């Protein structure tokens, strides 16, 4: 028996489970483990599977492990292509790889720049291929994913998309400002991703319960084992009451003060992974990080420590010139460096 919540998924009429299976990391584990995790998830009420053409052989794993249960889940994939021809061939390839004649949702993947959006939507763009596939019954709905909630709000205004996939986690509450309320008004499919910010942040239960407490239909959590599916299911066992919701919202406001949207506009010549530093530094100080997050800071140690002495950034930090939100990245990176010796 599942304790998940089921709500009507935008205009699709589908009753979608509040937890979705993020299949991005399945290529990193043995096939039998992936098979067990996917089937366990379906057996326990998860009915939304999210993958992408770009996630190595994730689509093939889905085809191999659960295509015989195709009617039991809403299947969402993505194309990174910006032009018609590439998108068309990627859609065809996704169907073959997942051994199905249609996907329920095709998302235009990782759209963060205005010029890319224009290319996708213009003549000969990927959106044309998505529409064509929809007419042919190969794609039921078209959505979009990106890391700029303020741009996504504008891009959905014409009603060309049925769904948006956005970040919503304790470290990134920004979709709540405008994007989610607008999508609710438009009766769109609201899908939150990365509740653990890519496996970095804890406490895990609170991190999963935060997007669950908000006005979204489904939260995709990346899972690779039965144990992880069980942990995610357990975190959604009880409904969230108003007091807990307020506590989670306060925590998210505090931990989201860095304001980084993970748009990746910034590039560091020392290859400091700035968005990860921005987003997880407060967690690092307050709660500590999950092993993946701690491992990241260990691997980045030299680069992060090097920021303070990097001559070309002394007068004007090169990264900060690129940030559309004018954030003080140099200061945050240098503070993160001081944490190594703390
Ligand atoms: S200020 Fe630091 S983080 Fe920013 S570009 Fe320069 S070296 Fe990289
Ligand atoms: S620091 Fe600014 S430019 Fe870099 S990812 Fe975050 S929001 Fe984007």
UniProtKB/TrEMBL annotation:
Domain of life: Bacteria
A Pfam family per the record: Aldo_ket_red
Matches recorded under Gene3D superfamilies: NADP-dependent oxidoreductase domain
Residues of the NADP-dependent oxidoreductase domain: 19-202
CDD domains: AKR_unchar
InterPro entries: AKR, AKR2_Oxidoreductase, NAD(P)_OxRdtase_dom_sf, NADP_OxRdtase_dom
Protein name: Aldo/keto reductase
